[in-house]
Amino acid sequence: MTAVPATPLLDNVTTPDDLRKLERAQLRQLADELRAEMISAVGQTGGHLGSGLGVVELTTAIHYVFDTPTDRLVWDVGHQAYPHKILTGRRDRIRTLRQPGGLSGFTKRSESEYDPFGTAHSSTSISAALGFAIANKLSGRPGKGIAVIGDGAMSAGMAYEAMNNAEAAGNRLIVILNDNDMSIAPPVGGLSSYLARLVSSGQFLGLRELAKRFARKLPRPLHNAARKTDEFARGMAMGGTLFEELGFYYVGPIDGHDLDALIPVLENVRDAAEGPCLIHVVTQKGKGYGPAEQSADKYHGVQKFNVVTGEQAKSASGPPSYQNVFGETLAKLAETDATICAITAAMPSGTGVDKFAKAHPDRAFDVGIAEQHAVTFAAGLAAEGMRPFCAIYSTFLQRAFDQVVHDVAIQNLPVRFAIDRAGLVGADGATHAGSFDVTYLATLPNFVVMAAADEAELVHMTYTAACHDSGPIAFRYPRGSGVGVDMPETPQLLEIGKGRIVREGSKVAILSLGTRLAEALKAADQLEAKGLSTTVADMRFAKPLDEDLIRKLAASHEVLVTIEEGSIGGLGAHVLTLASDEGLTDAGLKIRTMRLPDMFQDQNAPEKQYEEAGLNAPDIVDTVLKALRHNSAGVEEARA
Ligand SMILES: Cc1ncc(C[n+]2csc(CCOP(=O)(O)OP(=O)(O)O)c2C)c(N)n1
């Protein structure tokens, strides 16, 4: 007899209201369909896969039990929210994930009422959910705050700051700790070991033991429910002293793929908890998709892939990535310098620190998602004579700004900042763009701020930073591959605060900071073709500024254009300040600054984003022509 295929359920579930109409017994099938749909969609778009696969059952159970969107559900980081998007009215657009004009790869308020809070940087969910819970409590509106936070995200101080403050929310705050024993890399540190101990010691308590423990810790209705619900006993225990000390009822660990265990627990917490509750759910990253389950990183982030084989689209082989150039250069330098250390905040492979760690495991530190700690830890190392390199993405370093100012800059400590993902980053969109680091670092006394124009320059800057013991120094470089320049045999020590002339001309000077240099050179060719002789300088330093070079170019050119992959407040602002302080424009020099626009740019290919930002060669040509009041053929317009 052939089995009759089950009628698909997901096709009839557009929103959680539809989901809640299903029988509980149907949820297993729905979850399976949801998982298959997610795999199929991410196979086409690429993106975050493993985390979402791990929360398919949890997503189904939460929307089944809670009254979303009235109950405010906040997914920490938001990279695991693809199944949530499918169940909350966005299935029809799920194949536009991370594409231009498509769904965001994270949660986003403007996208859906089911996304009450935008996320992407980790460990914000408990604070935000607490805010929702208390606002609703104060205004007498229904609505709990539910935070779903991973064990990796739980390593950040902010999560504890929020929990420490949670009591005021009463039973309106629920934290679901999604423990898959993975961050992007394997999780690190004491908290991770603590959670592992809870999981290994807590499972499979008998019903009687469970009920006894519940009777002590949880309100009576929950206790009674526990007695009645057989499934409730399986895989569930009490423990979690740390969380209890912070004022939470700790429930768990629970098997997060077992809907029969999850649903009664969520219902009981919903109906009976008297204070903030933390439900510890154990899941498997990549669950239900063989290639993900078997891969070391559980397919945290993937390219488009073949769903049958799991094979990911290969990026064309080409120049090395900036992150690897950094990691390998630093590892090499550390062979002859025992003081060099490398620090990453949970991004060993993303930053290239994995390369360093392989060669020098004792001097590589993955501190977890803890950028603030990373910076002050580096400051301590530097104060004791070590040469620490803090390798942090531009966007994540924002979180540690006070540590950069107070612990590093004011004390003038030689912490080296390797700032990866500088500039626009593509599919991760506005939350991950590295737009502000030059602005927020080059404003600080004592700081040296460099930007690499290509991968060879990154080698020189890594070496220059290693040699710079007199204060803090930062160097920034973009996401992705280098431009294919010849790599130096030996690194060069750059003179601090000195740029270089890359091409000599006489009428127009383009001052470039970072990897727009290639566009500046293209623009110079086009200007030359219009009869406008063009100088191109790679400034290398936003701070200290190469003032002599600027004065010289200002005196010998008619137009001076600055260009950088950063917000207002960077190179352009510093050049304008010098020009105004010294009256460099008094004799008629025209200065124009080209920078990122005053807006948060959505996801797109980086080249497209730079096109939208107006920072490509044609934009440079345009800017110059406008400054000279030339039309596009290069002919001077008659003045009115
Ligand atoms: C402040 C900050 N630092 C780093 C990251 C990069 N990041 C994205 S997801 C992730 C790991 C999160 O681990 P976990 O919370 O356990 O979730 P999982 O991916 O395992 O589901 C990291 C480090 C980030 N989003 N925010």
Automatic annotation (TrEMBL):
GO terms for biological process: isopentenyl diphosphate biosynthetic process, methylerythritol 4-phosphate pathway; terpenoid biosynthetic process; thiamine biosynthetic process. It comes from the Bacteria. Its cofactor is thiamine diphosphate; Mg(2+). Pathway: Metabolic intermediate biosynthesis; 1-deoxy-D-xylulose 5-phosphate biosynthesis; 1-deoxy-D-xylulose 5-phosphate from D-glyceraldehyde 3-phosphate and pyruvate: step 1/1. CDD domains: TPP_DXS, TPP_PYR_DXS_TK_like. It catalyses: D-glyceraldehyde 3-phosphate + pyruvate + H(+) = 1-deoxy-D-xylulose 5-phosphate + CO2. Mg(2+) binds at residues 151, 180. It is an enzyme of class 2 (transferase). The keyword Magnesium applies. One of its GO terms (molecular function) is 1-deoxy-D-xylulose-5-phosphate synthase activity. Residues 320-485 form the Transketolase-like pyrimidine-binding domain. Binds 1 thiamine pyrophosphate per subunit. InterPro entries: Dxylulose-5-P_synthase, THDP-binding, Transketo_C/PFOR_II, Transketolase-like_Pyr-bd, Transketolase_BS, Transketolase_C, Transketolase_CS. Thiamine diphosphate binds at residues 79, 120-122, 152-153, 180, 289, 371. The keyword Magnesium applies. Keywords: Isoprene biosynthesis, Magnesium, Metal-binding, Thiamine biosynthesis, Thiamine pyrophosphate, Transferase. Its EC number is 2.2.1.7. Catalyzes the acyloin condensation reaction between C atoms 2 and 3 of pyruvate and glyceraldehyde 3-phosphate to yield 1-deoxy-D-xylulose-5-phosphate (DXP). Homodimer. Belongs to the transketolase family. DXPS subfamily. This is 1-deoxy-D-xylulose-5-phosphate synthase. It comes from Croceicoccus ponticola. The gene is dxs.
